From TrEMBL, chain B:
Domain Methyl-coenzyme M reductase alpha subunit C-terminal: 326-459
Protein name: Methyl-coenzyme M reductase subunit alpha
Reaction(s) catalysed by this chain's protein: coenzyme B + methyl-coenzyme M = methane + coenzyme M-coenzyme B heterodisulfide
MF (Gene Ontology): coenzyme-B sulfoethylthiotransferase activity; metal ion binding
Pathway(s) this gene product operates in, as recorded in its UniProt entry: One-carbon metabolism; methyl-coenzyme M reduction; methane from methyl-coenzyme M: step 1/1
Membership in a protein family: Belongs to the methyl-coenzyme M reductase alpha subunit family.
């Protein structure tokens, strides 16, 4: 994990805003703040949900371990310490999330920023209905465990979905679950959500429990999305809106008259 | 920014129709019980039709049960109908794909098969170089000959093949001029009468701009431009013009002076509807990627029919533009498949963009005293950073709040790019109509995008975000290859060439700046006059209504082939 060195001249601010939403965003992004652990999911269960390799199977490789292959004389390689997955020559694999706009604890750009601050050697991609992060496979499994076990995930309103991700903007099902055409995860009568298919939609040999959905009060207190119905209205965080306006105006000026920027 | 009261919600009727028996403000619903694609009569029709095709050709085809996601067909949630905005007509989403919609096809056909050609140079050459007399009578005779020849008939040679008039009935030529005296001397069947077609002030401005010159509005056969391409239009037209001059004015076909006439009549004063594209896009003139936004806003005629409603006029450009630029140009010329249609239709269905835009109209009237129902250059607001930011922010925030407060509307526009395009279009239109400045409108668009992204922590897809997160910087730049005024930007503008959900809206933002000022045209008065023609197959004053007619199978297009194929 990354740590912000105290002797750095620049101190990250992790975004503007006076609202609770803005504060939640900053907390998630700041690697010096520990994310609250909400559930236990075993390493084997993480591997099952990801669906990239069978539990216990060796990591397939894209190249020999770095120690065994001839590395070019490259100053960048001397500066950057490879991750464990890169050292071993792992394949690059992914985990992808769909986050409900009904107060899921994390949201696509927020996920990307958070991952960039907290993880190394990653390649995130951000869309409206899904967010993917790619990296070396053993690194991915380590990062996925944090992404799944902590406050970044709600079992009902966060989906782990490789394809057919549709659901982030739809009304919730009457049991509180976000729509998933493939119904990869189901809410049991015991109130526990279990994955019965891996993220790409292939049935699992056994269900993987990810815990109980978080309650509405907790979700609204920890949400990172502005929402005028039941949450914090965007317009109420004036500092945030003015910050975006300022960025826009500076970019506009720079586009045609850089000296004024 | 300050929220204003607006009790009317234009989208409510659509939502209530689409989600019948449900509370449109509820946050929950039921899924997985709708019996898949069977809930859609149109998709049932597709399956039936496909079975017949398979029996006939012996090759498998449409099979949603087997082929959609390993056996899970579409329709695990409710498949919605759509109201084409401003029409009250509900249609199946499938029927807004251009393959299933004859009106959409014809709109593009009517643009692609059009070229405008000047007559003054030809008349001067006839008079000065060839010693021919040119009078209203000779012009009428020439137009008779040309309307014989343009569809594909011979006028000079003997023993020539010709086209069947029943197959090319959409092909004809009319003329227009700002010289009302000349117009009155020509046969009415051939004249686009500016005074009759346009409201008084618009007619006056258009006539003054065109002056005494005489122009031909030429529409070659739909079938020809479909079989060939947009680049054919001026060539087909040029050949028939040349032969008609020779025939009508009794000229020698081989005389050297005819070369002068050929150039003057066929090539010297030609207005294509679209410029040709660079080799990497590999299209000739009169193909969608080369249509400038200002010119497109002149093709669409809603501001002629609704001069006191610049919002509606702009929304019609959005509908026509997203259909042409998103569904046909990017969706099929440059890419493929059906996803672009699902995306593009959000901007012209269910009155959602309409509602957001009229909120913007109420806002600019309330805060800036812009009397938008009486378009004029006099009450336009100075496009300062503060004012553009204010209008854009308020319209963007209002739209986001509407999506939040009506979860069924969020479900209707279930893709982030749909919402982003609609919100930014409303912001851009509000700013451009308020200021009369198309670049101010574009600037408002980009602020909306940034606000949207930060508010909901999401925007569109990768490429969408690429374009919109760097757009602020090019919105007011007019340096070569880095910017341009909105009127001369187009689908091939460097930063606009890549993705769906923008180009139709940009065209409307450009148009809105002029509609809000009460201008008679945006970029070219001749194009505005040409497409005012009531004889065109597609009514360019009502594109969304025409699309609705196409969707319910009531639009009759050109391109008839039943005359030359076996009876069914």
């Amino acid at each position: 994990m990354n740590e912000v060195k105290e002797n750095m001249a620049y101190k990250p601010q992790y975004g503007p805003g006076t609202s609770n939403v803005a504060a939640n965003r900053r907390k998630q992004m700041d690697p010096n703040q520990k994310l609250e652990k909400m559930r236990d999911v075993t390493d084997e269960d993480i591997v099952l949900i990801l669906g990239h390799r069978a539990p216990g199977a060796a990591y397939p490789t894209a190249h020999p371990p770095l120690a065994e292959q001839q590395e070019p004389d490259c100053p960048i390689r001397k500066i950057v310490t490879p991750t464990e997955g890169a050292k071993a020559g792992d394949r690059v694999r992914y985990i992808q999330f769909a986050d409900s706009m009904f107060f899921a604890p994390c949201q696509p750009y927020q996920r990307t920023y958070t991952e960039c601050y907290r993880f190394r050697g990653i390649d995130p991609g951000t869309l409206s209905g899904r967010q993917i992060v790619e990296c070396r496979e053993r690194d991915l499994e380590k990062y996925s465990k944090e992404l799944i076990e902590t406050e970044l995930l709600d079992p009902a309103r966060t989906g782990i979905r490789g394809a057919t991700v549709h659901g982030h903007s739809l009304r919730l099902a009457e049991n509180g679950m976000m729509f998933d055409m493939l119904q990869r995860s189901v809410l049991g009568e015991d109130g526990i959500v279990r994955y019965v298919k891996n993220q790409i939609g292939e049935p699992l040999d056994r269900a993987v429990a990810v815990g109980k959905p978080l309650d509405e009060k907790w979700l609204k207190a920890h949400t990172t999305i502005f929402h005028s119905l039941g949450g914090t209205a965007y317009r109420d965080d004036k500092e945030y809106v003015e910050y975006v306006q300022r960025i826009h105006t500076l970019r506009t000026k720079y586009g045609f008259l850089p000296k004024e920027a | 920014m300050a929220k204003i009261e607006r009790t009317q919600k234009l989208f409510l009727k659509s939502l209530k129709e689409k989600f019948q028996g449900q509370d449109v403000q509820s946050e929950t619903t039921e899924f997985y019980k709708f019996n898949g694609y069977h809930q859609s009569p149109r998709k049932e029709e597709f399956v039936k039709a496909s079975r017949a095709v398979e029996m006939d050709r012996g090759i498998s085809m449409y099979d949603p049960v087997r082929c959609h996601l390993g056996g899970i067909p579409l329709g695990q949630r409710q498949l919605m109908t759509y109201e084409v905005s401003g029409t009250g007509v509900f249609v199946e989403g499938d029927d807004l794909h251009f393959v299933n919609n004859a009106a959409m096809q014809q709109m593009w056909d009517d643009i692609r098969r059009t070229v405008i050609v000047n007559m003054d140079l030809a008349h001067q050459t006839l008079q000065k170089r060839l010693g021919k007399e040119v009078t209203p009578e000779t012009i009428n005779e020439y137009l008779h000959v040309l309307n014989h020849a343009m569809p594909g008939a011979a006028v000079v040679q003997e023993h020539m093949v010709e086209t069947h008039p029943g197959l090319v009935d959409d092909c004809y030529v009319k003329v227009f001029t700002g010289d009302q005296e000349l117009a009155d001397d020509l046969e009415p069947q051939f004249v686009l009468d500016v005074e009759k077609l346009f409201p008084g002030k618009q007619a006056e401005a258009l006539s003054a701009a065109v002056g005494k010159s005489l122009w031909q509005a030429i529409h070659i056969p739909t079938t020809v431009s479909r079989t060939c391409d947009g680049g054919t239009t001026s060539r087909w037209s040029a050949m028939q013009i040349g032969m008609s001059f020779i025939g009508a004015y009794r000229m020698c076909a081989g005389e050297a002076a005819v070369a002068d006439l050929s150039y003057a009549a066929k090539h010297a004063g030609v207005i294509q509807m679209a410029s040709h594209l660079p080799a990497r896009r590999a299209r000739g003139p009169n193909e969608p990627g080369g249509i400038g936004f200002g010119l497109f806003s002149d093709i669409i005629q809603a501001n002629r029919k609704y001069p006191n409603d610049p919002a509606k006029a702009s929304l019609e450009v959005v509908g026509a533009g997203t259909m042409l630029f998103d569904q046909i140009w990017l969706g099929s010329y440059m890419s493929g498949g059906v996803g672009f249609t699902q995306y593009a239709t959000a901007a012209y269905t269910d009155n959602i963009l309409d509602e957001f835009t009229y909120y913007g109209m109420d806002y600019i009237k309330d805060k800036y005293k812009v009397d938008w129902k009486n378009p004029s250059a006099d009450d336009k607001v100075k496009p300062t950073y503060d004012i553009v930011n204010d209008i854009s922010t308020e319209v963007a925030l209002n739209g986001m709040e509407q999506y939040e407060q009506y979860p069924t509307m969020m479900e209707d526009h279930f893709g982030g790019s749909q919402r982003a395009g609609v919100l930014a279009a409303a912001s851009g239109l509000s700013a451009s109509i308020a200021t009369g400045n198309s670049n101010a409108g574009l600037n408002a668009w980009y602020l909306c995008m940034l606000l949207h992204k930060d508010g909901w922590s999401r925007l569109g897809f990768f490429g969408y975000d690429l374009q919109d997160q760097c757009g602020s910087a090019n919105s007011l730049s007019i340096r070569g290859d880095e910017g341009a005024i909105g009127e001369v930007r187009g689908p091939n503008y460097p930063n606009y060439a890549m993705n769906v959900g923008h180009q139709g809206e940009y065209a409307a933002i450009t148009g809105g700046a002029h509609y809000g000022r009460g201008d008679a045209w945006c970029f070219d008065p001749r194009v505005k006059i040409c497409f005012a023609d009531p004889a065109l197959k597609f009514d360019f004053a009502e594109p969304r209504r025409e699309f609705a007619k196409g969707a319910i199978r009531e639009f009759m297009p050109a391109g008839e082939r039943s005359l030359i194929i076996p009876a069914r």
